[in-house]
Amino acid sequence: MTAVDDVRGARTPHGRPGERPDPRPDAQPEPHPDAEPDPLPPMTAPDGASGDGAPGPEPREQPDPCEQPDPAAHGAGGTRRMAARLRNLRQEVLRGPDDHATRAQHARGKLTVRERLDLLLDPGSFHELQPLRRHRATGFGMEDRRPRTDGVVTGQGTVEGRQVFVCAHDFRCFGGSLGQAHAEKIHRVMDLAEAAGSPLVTLIDAAGARIQEGATALAGYGGIFRRHVRSSGMVPQISVVLGPCAGGAAWAPALTDFVFMVRDVSRMYVTGPEAVRSLTGEEVTHDELGGAGVHEHLSGVAQFVHDDEESCLADVRHLLSLLPANNRELPPREEPEDTPGRGTPRLMDLVPADPAHAYDMRTVIAEVVDDGDWFEVHARWASNVVCALARLDGEVVGVVANQPSQLAGSLDIHASEKAARFVQTCDAFNIALVTLVDVPGFLPGRDQEHGGIIRHGAKLLYAYCNATVPRVSLILRKAYGGAYIVMDSQSIGADVTFAWPSNEVAVMGARGAVDVVFRRDIEAAADPAAARAECVKRYEEELMHPYYAAEQGLVDDVVEPGETRAALIGALAMLRTKHADLPDRKHGNPPM
Prior knowledge:
alpha/beta; disordered N terminus; seven-stranded mixed beta sheet; eight-stranded mixed beta sheet; 15% strand
């Protein structure tokens, strides 16, 4: 168990992995399907986009019982015979391709599409849309291979009794590749999710565009991208990458609100290893190029990464329990076992009074929120800022906090982007914001300045200024310079601001300030070291004492650490009916 897991706190039952049975009929490893040749070329994107080897052989098209003439169909019992045929056909759809394709999927360490849906959705709640759909393509032998569903299962079900729309690729059919009929099924379920105002979850296990269908497959991706953008900020959109996601397909998860991946299984990149090698000469594996670890630690594309599909889908269910169905609703309230007025005296021991000493901000979050239960987003990317979903007195809140144990809690390019995206997501879905401030400033250095820290830091500033949800901030210790302003200060619109008695709000730390303001006096003194110490003491007493911010109206109140939870809950309750009038404009133009 990692340090991240240690402080995450107990999950609610729907968020715990392992509580639902393994849907696979057997867990024995099977021979890899690549040992047998595929009778047709693999249905993958160019450049080996599947990253998974060629899909298993497709069964040859069998005569469709519904298309065979039956002279007795209109006689006595004809309706019953037709109904029986329909039931048989539906059973074939549920079974999917032949057993070889299923064994091949399990041999890759992956669940089948139906097994995944059983883990994601409440038992018996799934209603499938267009299960009998087939492609209309001809040429390259396609007319002889027309499986039902066309490699994607779409429909509607429930998670904890709340409606969710899903589309899930079936890698056993054409490697889950996207053709025209496949895309049209996805377009339809996306339109229904938007119209119904319900979350959309996409389970991705696809080899890219279907080469045999040419440009129509690419147009299908365009329709998906357009719908993701149209639904953005209206309904929660979650991408779960459970296999390959390459080429044009990789843009779809990046347009959604949250991305999940699984180690050693998920691979996501725009250009595959073969193309990289041919164009640049660089040798790189699928995992090195776009594995889950890359997107967890380096790119920041994936907010959540898991060791197996079962725990991944359990956390998708948990995340859905924290989100509203759409932007017109509030997140679901859950009655806590915790009490709103519970004291938090442990915080006085968890947070050192000396601003130069580090501590783990996650322990502070766990102490304050309901039942110590919180759900961290981007836990292993830009770890100098912490973003998490939690509850305070049963109400969902988004927590943004500096992390003094990493880079002293300073803001840099990645931390600014991470926090800005999280603030924007919370604001879109009516999730109140709680900001815990302990920031020495923006990270200095040539790399940060040349990398665009001004532009990236402005993203966080813009996100906070633009947010209309209830916003409460708390200064624990230091809050210096521009980083203090950006971290939801009162001056940029925080509704209620608190500070601990240990807070220091200033342009910069006392020692740095003295070196600027009193430099000449110190140099001219008989004892420069003593003069400097005296100037530091004077600056701290006049401008950095704990109550300076309160005296100047920069914070609304100074609270004891033991009162933190009660103070935050009280402020959020006061703001529950907050309403903000938005300016009359098409949209803002945030820094990109």
